[in-house]
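User: For documentation purposes, I need each entry recorded in a consistent format: the amino acid sequence on its own, followed directly by the corresponding structure tokens. There are two entries in this batch. Please keep commentary to a minimum and don't merge the entries.

Assistant: Recorded as requested. Entry 1:
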Amino acid sequence: MLNIEKEKVKLKFLPEENVTQIVFEEDIIVPDVKADIGNIIQVDSQVHIKSFSFNLNKLNYDGCIEYNILYVSDEQEKTINSIIGEIKINDILNMENIRHEDLTIESEIEYFKHTMINSRKLNLKVVINMKIKSEKNLEKDIITSENNFDYQTLYEDIDFDVKNDNKSEKIFIKETIELPSNKPSIKDILKCSMSLKNIDFKAIDEKVVLKGNLSIVVVYNNYENSLELIEYDIGINEIIDNVNCDENMMVDGKMDVQDKYVEISTDQNGDERIISIEMVAEAKFEIIAEEKKVVLKDIYGVSKKIKPQKEIYNYDKIIFKNKNKSTIKDTFSIDKNDVILQVYSIDGKIKIDNITVKKDSIVSEGHIDCKILYIVADDNIPIKSSSQVLYFVQTIDARGADENMKVKLDANIEHIAFNMISKNELEVKAILCFDAMVAEKKSQEFIVDIIESEEVDVGVYPSMIIYFVKTGDILWDISKKYNTTIKQIAELNDIENSNIIYPGQKLVILKNTNIA
């Protein structure tokens, strides 16, 4: 009975994605303190999944849909108002064909429609794409060079990507923003958007450094009932401790806003010029380490027959991970009946529609849904919004990639800006950041066990053979075939380097017929 030391290795796989759609519908009542709705200008929405659990093929999730409804009142003064709130969502989904190992959920709003029922009530209908990503967790046995066998052995170096660690951390940001001296005081906040940009994870010894920016855009009413805009960036620099990693390891991570809180307060003069910001985000990441193992590839006995037991392992090997930036731009025409006096803000949400892996490249096709908020020369509806779509096709260099490989691609908007060209035309420019990972699908045969036999394997060949080397031959295959050793062939034929033989070379081989 052979005493074999086996080592367990965790095989890495890129996540598999399943998408399911969920429809929500809710009636929104205008709060008593708000004016009646005359015209709806813009409705923004965002979905957050805050927690989930998986049990018996059922996925239980809990979250909310945030909404921000900007409207012009039906009063004579035509004031600008907003309704800010959220719709609680929780449900149970049947997920019979999905692995429940290492589940993550990403959600996005696919479709949003608002219908005004009357001046105090409107209906919201939302379609959400739930992207449920599952990653295999396979732990397999391999036989390494730590074993000392009394047989002829051939080893090979194999690189594995293994998940060394994974974590989910809450990141809390609190900031107080004081209005610049050239800005009037705040009557009420109409809109506050927060987005994470330039997020970067870096592994060091037993820590992960998280850096980036929180970009804040606030639209508010002053006491003269005109709109004001302020933009503010908060630097993020967090260190996450107790992580099983070092500086040579790869970090694959993502960070999303989960909750936000905005409050107006007074300065020392009693004027409402202070905005207090609180934000809670979740940073999820995994540590990927490349491990080189010296693995038993083949084994045979010269005087005793043995039978290696083999198994094919399938796994993914990451060949490429990189970030890439690209600038796209287009010209949008707003309603030609409108004369734009001022553009206040432009928001964008990016969506990847198709990903194609080609030779040494990744082609990403997608679009940005843009919402443009602007003032027009119209006393009845002084502020309007235009929805536009900015399409893009981006080719990302990915050396070593081909069409048979798997890809994981995240995209976000680093910056979006505009430039007025004419009274109803503007050029929109966006800087996009792509985070790409490409993996090769590997299928490798491994020896997982060895069975000994008392039979002697002497074959049917004569005891001495003259052999002429063929193209592709190696001494291992020849010695195994004729029941001898590489050392014996090399010594008998004065071969100095057993790794070098050439086609047509004559070898004298003495087959071992000794019975142990």
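Entry 2:
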Amino acid sequence: MRVFFILLIVWLFFSVNFGTAGETCQSCHKDAQSNCNLRCGDCHLSSSADFLPKEKNHPKIIRNPSLEKWWEEKCESCHSEVIQKFRNSLHYSNAGIIDQTRYLWGKQDEPLKSNPEEWKTLRGAGAISNPTTADLADHLLASKCFGCHFDAEMRRASEGRKRVAGCAACHTPLDQQTGKPLHGHRFQKKVGDEVCLTCHSGNYVGGDYYGFFEHDYHREYQTSYGSKPLFGAYQHRLARDVHQQAGMKCMDCHSKSDVTGDNVIRHFEGERPAVRCEDCHGGFGKKASSAKAINKAFIFDSAIAAHQSFHARVSCTACHAQWSYQDYGLHLFLDETDNYEMWANFLWQGDGEVYDLLSTQLAKKQVNRQKAYSTNKLTGERIPGIWYKGWTFRRWETPILGVDRNGKFGIIRPLYQYYVTYVDSLDRVWLDSEKPKRSDGKIGWNWDVYQPHTIGKRGRNCESCHENPKAAGLGIRQSVGDSAAHFITIPHNTILPEARLLNYREKRRLLGKSEQYKIWRTRALKRGGIDELYK
């Protein structure tokens, strides 16, 4: 009986003092005004709570109940359907990133292999035991790539990249200057573009929608006169997507099922349900949406030369993308030493952790410096070594063509052409600009068809593809008779299902001038007013 009364008193203490939105919690947490009917304790108290605040007599609490590990206890009673669908999504699994990296680096034998829960295995990534690219793959994923995962706490990231973990990663946006929640202790149902950009930036789709393209990382390429880095690097400002200029947001095209999942498990980006240009604007054999037509969206005009049947297999973005990301030769350097001077001119590499480490350690005398380290983004634990990166060179002009999984001609880019270097804590060089090998012995490089978010009202000129060796996949060169400026500009291969490079016949057709092409090119020039120029 005595034990019963003790337990009763403890229960009353927690339920009264920490279970209401009143006296005790908000006497300290005055800004923690919620937008729901739950009490503080409904989310933040648990017998399994794992955080003890410094305040005297404060009970253990759950700091972030939106983390995946608390869903079953705290969230599923109300949000079970949303959670189940989200577990199928790529935003949950990051399956494409895991599978592609592991496959290209020789850690797994298939490009689409993982299940939606595979990301949890990266929590065990740590010190390197075997210096091969296959064994380095998970270190790279856990300590660098997975800074962009919903379960990674990135509150201290670079400006533009700050966010918390769990459901709050999207639904509780942070002030990018201070790292504090923009809307206090309130979940936001509507997700703004600034949230999307915390991951979809840094020369990835999303950043291009706003015209961002990273500068080269060396100090001499930084912008002077007051400009400052964004997303961990200095940024060029290129042409923004016409939809962005019109005020459209990411979620205007990307539906809830696209972003947070549905009843189907997705393995890579091309499998997800997505709105198509034709859904609003019409296209070959498809009428424009009446709702969008009323809103004065541009309607597919079959009188335009580029809109003839011979282009029925050409994707809209193949012509209307004003520019595309073309990052050649990704050099990744895992360094466990304290040799920081060689990186003194490369502070801003698109990674806030790299900047923090370099700026902190370079400010110390050599004798006081620590060996390089990074954090496992899923656990927050420190692990030996940090990944520096750079590129052979980067371009944005004149996209390259390939064929997507739907059999349409689209824009391709290198994702990625890896060169891997590894130096351990004893300054021993185990890998030196090594190209990773797949399990079948082939070079672990990949080119991928993608959808640039750089759409313009008018398509690029015909010559950006026709008679253009680069567009045909022959690399950057002046003419077919020249040699490529660099072999890495020649598309290598694709690993995702059904996507491919142009075949010999398609290249020949693109580089030649058929009578049909001459006729329609002349019509296009006349429609553009060329006759007026020569009057």
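Summary note for entry 2:
The radius of gyration is 26 Å.
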